[in-house]
Amino acid sequence: MSDLLSYRLAGRAAGVVALLVLPFYADGFWLQSGLFAMAAVLGATGLNLLTGIAGQLSLGHAFFLAVGAYGYAWLSAEPSGGGSGARLSGVGLPPAAAFVLAVALAGAAGGLFSPIAGRLRGMYLGVATIALVFLGQHVMLDSRALTGGFNGRAVTPMELFGFSFGDGSPEGLAVLGVPFGGVERLWYLGLALVAVGLFTAQGLRQGRPGRALAALRDSETAAAVMGVPVARYRCAAFVASCLYAGAAGALTALVFKRVVPDHFGLALSIDYLAMIVIGGLGSVGGAAAAAVLVSLLPQVLTTYADRLPLIAPTGSDGFGATPGEAARYLYGAAIVLILTFAPGGLAGLARRRPGAPVSAPPAAGATAPHPATHPSTGKEPTP
Fold first, then answer.
1. 56 — phi, psi (to 5°)?
2. Mean pLDDT, residues 326-355
3. What is the mean pLDDT of the chain?
4. If DSSP states are collapsed to H, E and C, what string results for 51-74?
5. Which residues, 6 or more positions from 38, have their beta carbon under 8 angstroms from its beta carbon?
6. Using CA atoms, how far apart are residues 289 and 8, in angstroms rounded to an integer?
7. CB count, 10 Å around CB of 370?
């Protein structure tokens, strides 16, 4: 056991070192793709708290990413004239403050919806959250002074304590002889956000809130008998998920440098649902690994499309699926295989010992094994 723990710690340390030195070796395309993957990790971690741990289905995650992305773009921008003569509104806050407030704005949007989330569950909540995506598309396309309409709006680069994470000042920045432009600088900001997000999510999952949410997922009646305020914890899980989505949306805006409505459609919500299913419901590490896989797969297929069968490069008239379509086919097939043969997802496969039987995660309504602990106090109930 100690040897296994040592190997795991050594592997994690090697992974951290590799991520820290990657900007010195990788080109801008792969660094940008990695930053999009970091944003996906944040968003998938938040959805996993809601769906994987609390057992609440949400198909409106793209809406809250849009709130974070457009919130940062609006809060950090100065009012200006649009390219077609339309005037774009803005608040002109410092970018760091705008980022924090954009995350809070996504949480506030989740708080406004949380009374509905507290009353509905399962498929009913999933259908209700789909309405948010369509509402968001309507707002993004029609509120041109705020969102820029169909063409979107540009994003102000991040600045922190006078240091710019864009391609501007300080110009000509180099570290160990390697030029550090905006994408290299933003890489380390993304790593810091992901580290904080994963650490917080792991603490929530293993602490009293996580035990209470797991009790809700397994049996609401039993959780209520044990003293868990069902509606309050449902609402709290929904708001926490929205905060993560807001951070993911704001980071996506910083990487893409422009926010457009097409990116925040229903397909994005489906992508995030695929991430947590492939990674393993309830597993923070599994959701993060699957988020990297799902977000990077289209980029890999785009790069090597001319060498792969049945895949047509983007913009070509050749026979085959586009890289984006092929990626969805592949992880759609992965979902079917995982649900059939490995219900625990990537996390379950990583924990599984050779020769051990595959067991499914606890289904909704299943009772927890005894002796159980109180989800709020962590103590065993008195007979």
1. -105, 120
2. 81
3. 84
4. HHHCCCCCCCHHHHHHHHHHHHHH
5. 190, 191, 193, 194, 251
6. 15
7. 7
3-state SS of 285-354 is HHHHHHHHHHHHHHHHHHHCHHHCCCECCCCCCCCCECHHHHHHHHHHHHHHHHHHHCCCHHHHHHHCCC
Place 315 in a pLDDT band, splitting at 50, 70 and 90: low
Q: Two tokens at 55?
A: 């057992």
How does strand 163-164 pair with strand 87-88? unpaired
Residue 347, CA distances (Å) to 215, 251, 275, 296, 350 in order: 21, 26, 12, 19, 5
* Cα of 380 vs its chain's centroid, Å: 34
Q: What pLDDT score was predicted for residue 81?
A: 62
> Would you state the structure tokens that stand for residue 88, as one six-digit string?
């774009």
The tens digit of pLDDT for each residue in 100-148 reads 999 999 999 999 998 888 888 888 999 999 999 999 999 999 999 999 9
Other beta carbons within 10 angstroms of residue 66's beta carbon come to: 30
Which stretch of DSSP H or E encloses residue 258? Answer: strand 258-259
Q: Which residue has the higher pLDDT, 64 or 376?
A: 64
Predicted local confidence at residue 123, as pLDDT: 87
**pTM score, whole prediction:** 0.87
Alpha carbons 125 and 36: distance in angstroms, whole number: 28
DSSP-assigned beta bridge partners for residue 178: 175
Asked if 324 contacts 298 with a C-beta cutoff of 8 angstroms, the reply is yes
**DSSP 8-state class, residue 186:** H
The owner of tokens 């569950």 is 121
